[in-house]
Amino acid sequence: MDPRLEQVVKAYDVRGLSPEQLDADLARALGAAFAVETGIDGGRGAAVVGHDMRDTSPALVEAFSEGVRTQGADVIGIGLASTDLLYFASGDLDVPGAMITASHNPAEYNGIKLCRAGAKPIGYDTGLSAIAEHATTLLRGAGLPEPSGSYEQRDALTRYAEYLHQIVPVPAGRRLKVVADAGNGMAGHTVPSVFASLDVDLTPMYFELDGTFPNHDANPLDHATLVDLQATVRETGADIGLAFDGDADRCFVVDELGAVVSPSAITGLIAHRALIASPGATILHNVITSKAVPEIVAENGGTAVRTPVGHSLIKAEMARTGAVFGGEHSGHFYFKDFFLADSGMIAALHVMAALAETDGTVSQLMAQYERYAASGEINSTVDDAPAILERLTTTYADLEHDTMDGLTVTADTWWFNVRASNTEPLLRLNVEGDDEATMAAVRDDVLAIIRGG
């Protein structure tokens, strides 16, 4: 593989500093290779292409689209888009798709997320490595031919908003006061269209599209980025606050008191609603979601299936099991009726719909789903992750443990999971206990082993 591609081709997508690592030449070659891998070359089909608001996105989307067209494939451009809008267009049109975005990464990054027709994911082991190898051949060759495929610009946003309301109707009658923080990301483009027909009073925060992220990083997994939203919810007396990441495929919720709602609790709520609509259905959850999630699924007559972390893995498992919904503790939520793809906007609509059906508050609504004390994800830089995982396995050998994704150790009143990062020398720790004191004691013991204390 070309050394430049080795720097940017990751487990699930293409991602790197732009233009230093990911530039127009690489994007053009990747576009051509993508057309071949998805079988649309030689005039056999089209791809839909969208992009976010980063300063480097226009040049990358132009180059990638040109690369697709050099292989005789057509391009349907949808312009500015959230990643879930791109997935919708791929599913709705039944064509492969490419989204130019670096998601929640800082402004100096950019990337490409790819999918096959019907929004089926492309990860390293499901086509991305082959695309990178073919792109390497093209980069080392005599150059690409002139584009022969056509280019057509279409609006996908209107149809996307209509479709979301079909699958998650939010009842009228209780007018909700909603604060939404787009973080200068793509939710500033999609929220106005989706919310236009809802019975809400919307307070928009940082809706101006700005790839330099002048107010804060668009990464709600870092709770430091939620401070402005929390303050605005309290100051305005809002019913709910919503925070989206840069490409708006993830959504975090803040309650009326300004407290952050656990994504595991949102997974539990949506699972409950999904099982009302589809009794006995299968629900997926990854290894770091709260143990409340499988409890809630069982209580509501469903089948809970535990999965590793990672969207490509979850989408494949949803297809295999016929699951109607899947939730990750990172704020990714996947829906069978959304082409098995993830959408932060659909998750937000579910929470608002559930709230609109009650006279209560978000904190009251979520109380039944927030059952345990969690540490949140704690990252530690390490020199030898396998050795530390082995030490933890030995230390907790007498307890139930598994290695589905890293190491998970389970006791009667607590559990923890430790996973190695795919891209950095980090171990990621998540701990949950029946109460705060139990969780804190386990957290400190495990961290002492991880950090050599």
Automatic annotation (TrEMBL):
Gene3D superfamilies: Alpha-D-Glucose-1,6-Bisphosphate, subunit A, domain 3, Alpha-D-phosphohexomutase, C-terminal domain. Residues 7-134, 160-258, 265-372 form the Alpha-D-phosphohexomutase alpha/beta/alpha domain. Residues 377-447 form the Alpha-D-phosphohexomutase C-terminal domain. One of its GO terms (molecular function) is intramolecular phosphotransferase activity. The keyword tRNA-binding does not apply. The keyword Translocase does not apply. GO terms for biological process: carbohydrate metabolic process. Its cofactor is Mg(2+). It comes from the Bacteria. Keywords: Isomerase, Magnesium, Metal-binding, Phosphoprotein. Belongs to the phosphohexose mutase family. This is Phosphomannomutase/phosphoglucomutase. It comes from Aeromicrobium endophyticum.
